[in-house]
# Entry
Amino acid sequence: KASIPGITEDELIRLDLLAQTAVFTAQGVPFILAGEEMLRDKKGVHNSFKSPDNINQLPWENLEKYPQVFDYYRGLTELRRNHPAFRMTDANMVCKKLEFIKAPQNVVAFRLKDNANSDSWRDIVVILNSNKTAKTVSIPNGTWTSVCEGGQINLAGISEYRGSEIEVAPQEALIIYTK
# Structure
């Protein structure tokens, strides 16, 4: 909130989900602070070590206020748990199986390829668009199933895409795969 004065609640939620998608799809151990899954903000106190309970408490009412945030974090956890491509432990494997995709400014895109770390999905593409406008990204030609888009995660699939380009909505993450 402090870094983007005047941010709307909707934009705050979109950017939170985008940032957590980056954390959960990166190689290595993801780390989140208690309460992030319910949009805990500690009332803007950066280092709350010596702050009172009204700053450090978990705002349990936010689970009802922002259920979509909690559900998204749960989906990210399930995605990571069920797909070992996001949990490679060998640097050589990461070098061989992860490749960055050329993308527009303020977009990060990468592919986990060739059943990385014995994953059941042959190729996984993660695209993170922090722009306030939709962006088009070139992807390997094929038929793709999305599991993350529109602020939702569904490992059974959300949409199907064909071709070698895909549009990613503003301030949103898109995760697609091929079998």
The longest helix spans residues 9-25. The CA atoms of residues 130 and 177 lie 21 Å apart. The longest strand covers residues 135-149.
